[in-house]
Amino acid sequence: MSTAVETAPVTVTERAVKELHKLKDQQEISDDFGLRIGVEGGGCAGMNYVLGFDQKKDGDQEYNIEGLRVFMHKAHGMYLLGMEIDFQDGLNARGFTFNNPNAAKTCGCGTSFSV
Fold first, then answer.
1. Is 105 exposed, middle or buried (0-12, 13-18, 19+ CB in 10 A)?
2. Buried b (16+ CB within 10 A) or exposed e, 19-33
3. Which of 12, 32, 84, 89 is deepest in the core (most CB within 10 A)?
4. Rounded Cα distance, 115 and 88, in Å
5. HSE (side-chain half, CA atoms, 13 Å) at 59
6. pLDDT at 112
7. pLDDT tens per residue across span 69-83
8. How far apart are CA 20 and CA 65, in angstroms?
């Protein structure tokens, strides 16, 4: 089994890391699971972000971001390189946000993009 590689292609803000640790504890997610970050086809702009706890799969690279195991399929790196994941907890918005410098177009909800 491979170990975590050096530097993750994405960054996760301190607020997002705190919220992810909180969710993992609240949902009693086992340490066999890590945070999956990726993309999938769909959404109003062509591609959706994937963010959720999952087990490691063939083709995944593993990273450690502030104590979180993070899994990302190798092929998704080109779409997500340099992306920042944040967590907003305000009156107008609550949830994870994606700041992706590779996105040529995004939708209004912020979870769909195209390159």
1. exposed
2. bbeeebeeeeeeeeb
3. 12
4. 24
5. 6
6. 56
7. 999 999 998 889 999
8. 11
Q: What is the residue whose two structure tokens read 């993070």?
A: 70
Residue 79 vs residues 23, 24, 27, 47, 71: alpha-carbon distances, Å: 26, 26, 29, 10, 15
Each residue's pLDDT tens digit, 28-63: 999 999 999 999 887 666 788 899 999 999 999 999
| C-alpha–C-alpha distance, residues 81 and 38, integer Å | 11
- Residue 68 near residue 20 (C-beta atoms within 8 A): yes
Task: Give the DSSP H/E element, type plus range, for residue 94.
Answer: strand 94-99
Buried b (16+ CB within 10 A) or exposed e, 65-75: beebbbbbbee
Residue 3 has pLDDT above 60, yes or no: no
pTM of the model: 0.83
